[in-house]
Amino acid sequence: MIQFNEPPFTGKEIEYIKQAVAAQHICGDGVFTKRCHQWLEERMQSPKALLTTSCTHALEMAALLLEIRPGDEVIMPSYTFASTADAFVMRGARIVFVDLRPDTMNLDETLLEDAITPKTRAIVVMHYAGVACEMEPILDLADRFHLAVVEDAAQAVMSSYHGIPLGSIGDYGCYSFHETKNYSMGEGGALLIRDLENRDRAEIIREKGTDRSKFWRGEVDKYTWVDFGSSYLPSDLNAAYLWAQLEQADAINEHRLRLWNQYYRELFSLAEQGCLSLPVIPAGCKHNAHMFYIKTDNIIQRSALIRFLKEREIGAVFHYIPLHTVAAGKKYGRFHGIDRYTTKESERLLRLPLHNHVTEADVEQVCAALKEFYGK
Question: Which domains are assigned to the chain?
Answer without folding.
Answer: 13-246 (3.40.640.10), 249-375 (3.90.1150.10)
